């Protein structure tokens, strides 16, 4: 994996898997409001053939009122699935969030020293329910994190170890590579991401975001601000 020293292998035999992805209906969910959940953090009636509860599996609610079904009923990708699972969307964030649970992360609001503080939002962790609140998609909806954030990376690496082979050479982070997704409109589209880099002499370039101010700050506990806030202004 990108940030931790773990190899993931795809299999089609759920009984031999540590992590299973599936779809279910509202009737099978702990709450009709849930878009997805992981059996890591909820009591579940889902069992294996020996009637043992399974933990670490992830289920998506195809009845969810938010209108997201990754697959249609015939198990083919829905026409709008690519758009719904776009980086920074609620749906993409939900997938990351549930994977986080499956790997051992808990909600930030369940941690006493974090709950209710300035750390309890997606600027720091995808396990937070609170979005950053100051970044937007061009349609006006709130932008969500496009990957693991600082606290997620730190805690997963404490559990599984660090992957220093990731981008271990001299890496140039630019628009579309590390700074927003490929094809990003640098004048209008916002992004929220955390970079994990395994080594080398690296460059963070804001050259492609010349329409907006940029602040690159690599001090511990500080953040960089590059590009648009998605709402017509700069991110700071």
Please outline what is shown here.
This protein has helices at residues 81-84, 90-103, 150-160; strands spanning 21-24, 36-38, 58-61, 172-175, 178-179, 203-204, 214-215, 225-226.
Describe the fold and architecture.
The chain is built from 3 helices and 8 strands; from the N terminus they run E-E-E-H-H-H-E-E-E-E-E. It is low in regular secondary structure. It has 2 domains: 1-163, Collagenase (Catalytic Domain) (3-Layer(aba) Sandwich), CATH 3.40.390.10; 172-236, no CATH class. The strands form 3 sheets. The protein has a 3-stranded mixed β-sheet with strand order 1-3-2, with helices on one face. A 3-stranded parallel β-sheet has the order 5-4-6, with no helix packed on it. Strands 7-8 form a two-stranded antiparallel ribbon. Mean pLDDT is 78; it is low at 40-53 and 67-82.
What distinguishing features does this structure have?
2 domains, three-stranded mixed beta sheet, little secondary structure, 236 residues, Collagenase (Catalytic Domain)
Topology:
Blueprint: E1 21-24, E2 36-38, E3 58-61, H1 81-84, H2 90-103, H3 150-160, E4 172-175, E5 178-179, E6 203-204, E7 214-215, E8 225-226
Parallel strand pairs: 1-3, 4-5, 4-6
Antiparallel strand pairs: 2-3, 7-8
CATH architecture of the largest domain: 3-Layer(aba) Sandwich
What's the structural domain tally? 2
Q: Roughly how much helix do the residues carry, as a percent range?
A: 10-25%
The helix/strand series, from N terminus to C terminus, equals EEEHHHEEEEE
Secondary structure tally: strands: 8
Low-confidence stretches: 40-53, 67-82
Q: Strand content of the residues, in percent?
A: 5-15%
In CATH terms, the superfamily of the largest domain is Collagenase (Catalytic Domain)
Which outline best applies?
Answer: globular
**Main beta sheet:** 3 strands, mixed
Nearest-angstrom radius of gyration?
A: 19 Å
State the CATH class of the largest domain: Alpha Beta
| Average residue pLDDT | 78
CATH fold name of the largest domain, please?
Collagenase (Catalytic Domain)
Distance between the termini: 32 Å
* Number of helices, counting only DSSP H or I runs of 4 residues or more: 3
Structural class: little secondary structure
Strand order of the largest sheet: 1-3-2
């Amino acid at each position: 994996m990108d940030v931790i020293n773990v190899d993931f292998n795809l299999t089609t035999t759920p009984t031999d898997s540590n992590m299973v992805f599936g779809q279910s209906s509202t009737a099978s969910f702990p709450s009709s409001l849930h878009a997805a959940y992981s059996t890591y953090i909820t009591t579940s009636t889902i069992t294996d053939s020996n009637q043992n509860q399974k933990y670490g599996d992830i289920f998506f609610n195809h009845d969810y009122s938010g209108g997201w079904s990754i697959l249609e009923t015939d198990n083919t990708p829905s026409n709008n699935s690519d758009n719904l699972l776009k980086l920074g969307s609620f749906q993409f964030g939900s997938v990351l969030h549930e994977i986080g649970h499956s790997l051992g992360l808990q909600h930030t609001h369940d941690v006493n020293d974090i709950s209710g503080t300035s750390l309890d939002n997606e600027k720091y962790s995808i396990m937070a329910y609170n979005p950053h609140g100051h970044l937007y998609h061009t349609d006006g909806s709130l932008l969500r994190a496009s990957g693991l954030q600082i606290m997620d990376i730190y805690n997963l690496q404490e559990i599984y170890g660090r992957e220093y082979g990731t981008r271990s050479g001299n890496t140039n982070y630019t628009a579309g590579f590390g700074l927003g997704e490929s094809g990003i409109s640098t004048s209008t589209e916002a992004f929220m991401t955390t970079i994990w880099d395994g080594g080398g002499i690296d460059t963070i370039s804001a050259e492609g975001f010349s329409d907006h101010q940029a602040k690159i700050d690599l001090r511990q506990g500080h953040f960089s601000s590059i590009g648009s806030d998605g709402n017509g202004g700069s991110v700071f």
